[in-house]
């Protein structure tokens, strides 16, 4: 992980997130600033990846639903500026989300475009399996999505 740092996403990052959404997902309904602000206001776990100048180059979010000890994680979003793709930013963001879910022993679920081979490979490498298919999930493009899931990590104290 070189050339960027991970930190909590801030409300002031919402405009940049929305800008990246429009750039990265032009054929679908990109999230707007208010959606990112609402996610943060609801207390969901969101991280930003920042270049050395402090510019946001990626972001990811995880919702933990339910109550301890029965949390369930849902990856809400993950995106990396196209100029920064292939540099480990997405992997670092995703692993940080998984670490947060693992800390509360939550299974994790997500949706991914069926044509996003790179993301699917990353998810499979981290223990995710395809659970189902959501036809025409992404709008307005009508692209299909796989639902994928990974069981909860076993806490160390449960192993003893």
List its salient traits:
seven-stranded mixed beta sheet, 5 helices, Aminopeptidase, 30% helix, disordered C terminus, 7 strands
CATH architecture verdict: 3-Layer(aba) Sandwich
Under CATH at level 1, the class stands as Alpha Beta
- CATH-assigned homologous superfamily: Gcn5-related N-acetyltransferase (GNAT)
Mind summarizing the main beta sheet? 7 strands, mixed
Pick out the low-confidence regions.
156-160
What's the number of domains?
A: 1
Structural class based on helices, strands and sheet pairing: alpha+beta
Proportion of β residues? 25-35%
CATH topology: Aminopeptidase
Mean pLDDT: 92
Helix and strand run: EHHEEEHEHEEH
Query: How many DSSP E strands?
Result: 7
N- to C-terminal distance: 33 Å
Q: Biggest sheet: strands side by side, in what order?
A: 1-2-3-4-5-7-6
Shape: globular
Kindly provide the radius of gyration, computed on alpha-carbon positions and rounded to a whole number of angstroms. 16 Å
Helix content: 25-40%
Number of helices in the DSSP assignment: 5
Family: Belongs to the acetyltransferase family. RimI subfamily.
InterPro entries: AcTrfase_RimI/Ard1, Acyl_CoA_acyltransferase, GNAT_dom, YpeA/RimI_acetyltransf
Keywords: Acyltransferase, Cytoplasm, Ribonucleoprotein, Ribosomal protein, Transferase
Pfam families: Acetyltransf_1
């Amino acid at each position: 992980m070189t050339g960027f740092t991970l930190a909590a996403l801030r409300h002031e990052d919402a405009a940049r997130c929305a800008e990246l959404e429009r750039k990265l997902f032009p054929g679908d309904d990109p999230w707007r600033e208010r959606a990112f602000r609402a996610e943060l206001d609801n207390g969901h776990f969101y991280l930003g990846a920042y270049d050395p100048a402090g510019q946001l180059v990626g972001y990811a979010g995880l919702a933990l639903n339910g109550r301890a000890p029965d949390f369930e994680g849902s990856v809400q979003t993950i995106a990396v500026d196209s100029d920064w793709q292939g540099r480990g930013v997405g992997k670092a963001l995703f692993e940080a989300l998984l670490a947060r879910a693992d800390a509360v022993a939550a299974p994790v679920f997500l949706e991914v475009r069926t044509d996003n081979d790179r993301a699917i490979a990353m998810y499979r490498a981290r223990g995710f399996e395809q659970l189902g298919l959501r036809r025409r999930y992404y709008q307005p493009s009508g692209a299909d999505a796989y639902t994928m899931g990974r069981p909860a990590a076993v806490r160390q104290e449960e192993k003893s």
